[in-house]
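Dear Dr. K.,

Following up on our conversation at the group meeting, I've run the structure prediction for Ovarian cancer-associated protein 2 from Dermatophagoides farinae. I'm pasting the input sequence below exactly as I used it, so you can double-check it against your construct before we proceed with anything downstream. Let me know if the numbering doesn't match what you have in your notebook.
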Amino acid sequence: MSDKNCLKILCLHGYRQNSQSFKAKSGGFRKVLKNRFEFVIIDAPHQIPLGEQNPNNEQDCLSWWFSGENPDYFSSKHLSNYVKGYDESMKKICDSFEKMGPFDGLLGFSQGASLVALICILKHFNEFPYDFKFVILCSGFKSLTSSHVAMFDRLADQKIRIPSLHIIGENDQVVDHDRSESLANDYFYCPFIIKHAGGHTIPSQTSFRPQYLNFLDKLNDFS
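The predicted structure tokens came back this morning:
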């Protein structure tokens, strides 16, 4: 991008999505911010196997990790000691920084937002090797996989000081809004929260543009 004011952001889609479906579903949101962001959307590395969560064995039905097996599946509500695919997803993200970065920020939707939160914890402890200035978490939640819970537990009373925008649907039937608010308020320092009356979506109405821009304009003031 030639516009120095345009921020380059790496986007992580949700479970059972891919880069193209997320591009379509986020089109309105991206249009609202087209002069402020360059969006780079990548695919999660794991296909969801044939089963209840992928009954047609679609090749573009993807996941960042699985929380259950036989066949592999994922549930945001699943308390589990099982995790598969997380390391490969982290490698994919690091490769994206190497090949397509640097990035000013990260944006995640649903499972993608949960992964962004984990990356923020790693960055907090200087265990993620790439720099970014902010994150946007849409319909985010704290992963209940035991190894991920342990990562949150490491924070103890500390708060992640990466500037964060949390977009929360008050009628989200997939990720309860209370979980998204808890992720924001319990683990992030001064989270910027935008609520909307919709569900498991990113609001695209132009009426939200001032709130989005308000967050971006305050980035330099964050301390």
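Two things stood out to me. The radius of gyration is 16 Å. The first strand starts at residue 7 and ends at 12.

Best regards,
J.T.
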